[in-house]
Amino acid sequence: MTTDSTELVWRDATSDDATAIALLERELFGSTAWPQEMVREELEGPYRAYTVIEHEGSIVAYGGVLSVGGDGDVQTIAVTESYRGRGLGKQLLHRLLRDAVALGATRVFLEVRADNPVAITLYERSGFEHIGVRRGYYQPDNIDALIMCNRTLQEASE
Ligand SMILES: CC(C)(COP(=O)(O)OP(=O)(O)OC[C@H]1O[C@@H](n2cnc3c(N)ncnc32)[C@H](O)[C@@H]1OP(=O)(O)O)[C@@H](O)C(=O)NCCC(=O)NCCS
């Protein structure tokens, strides 16, 4: 694909995006996808900031953060398959970190499947450290969740 990044539209997500994001959740996360009602609650909920990236009117990437009491969480981040590997995931993650700081976060946590090396590398290169493991957290596959934390938000979100 020869998409130029200038053709991509970045914007804040709204509850009108719930249906499209829920469809992408099913496609990208399968059995662990958020149901549409949960997506809608996230998009409408307080202390959150969600972003979508559109190309030719369709959402090609989305992500969101929650921040309460100085602790942020990357709630979700995803890039559709044919738009991967061109820096969108990294740029989106960095926007989420800036949003978390704007919401008052001084550190940001996330959980990632231990069998997702692409995401783990992205997080490591964006200032996240491994701080713990939840054994068998993802069921029924029985995959561990790695817990990661970014305490260097200013550097990572530049
Ligand atoms: C994880 C994900 C968001 C990355 O998005 P992306 O747009 O492809 O990522 P980028 O092109 O910005 O690459 C960012 C980093 O990811 C890593 N990466 C990207 N593609 C990779 C690959 N094929 N193999 C290994 N590492 C890879 C690299 O570290 C890269 O950084 P670098 O370019 O400095 O080397 C995307 O793969 C995705 O949506 N996956 C499915 C959903 C998912 O797993 N979300 C995370 C849930 S915790």
Structure description:
With 158 residues, this protein is α+β, with helices and mostly antiparallel strands. It has a single domain (5-156), classed as Gcn5-related N-acetyltransferase (GNAT) (Aminopeptidase), CATH 3.40.630. Helix content is 31%, strand content 37%. It has a 7-stranded mixed β-sheet with strand order 1-2-3-4-5-7-6, with helices on both faces. Bound molecules: coenzyme A. Coenzyme A binds next to strand 4, helix 3 and helix 4.
Which descriptors apply to this entry?
single chain, 158 residues, alpha+beta, Aminopeptidase, 7-stranded mixed sheet, 37% strand
Q: Kindly report the spatial arrangement of strands forming the biggest sheet.
A: 1-2-3-4-5-7-6
Globular, elongated, flat, extended or rod-shaped: what is the shape?
Answer: globular
List the total number of helices: 5
N-to-C span: 28 Å
Strand content: 35-45%
Q: Bound compounds, please?
A: coenzyme A
**Biggest sheet: strands, sense, closure?**
7 strands, mixed
Q: Helix/strand/pairing class, anyone?
A: alpha+beta
- Spell out the helices and strands N to C: EHHEEEHEHEEH
How many β-strand runs? 7
> What is the residue-mean pLDDT, rounded to a whole number?
93
The helix fraction, in percent, is 25-40%
Furnish the topology, listing elements before pairings.
Blueprint: E1 9-12, H1 18-29, H2 36-44, E2 48-55, E3 58-68, E4 71-79, H3 88-102, E5 107-113, H4 117-125, E6 128-138, E7 143-150, H5 153-156
Parallel strand pairs: 4-5
Antiparallel strand pairs: 1-2, 2-3, 3-4, 5-7, 6-7
Helix pairs in contact: 1-2
The protein binds coenzyme A.
Coenzyme A (COA) is lined by residues 28, 77-79, 84-90, 112, 116, 118-119, 121-122, 125.
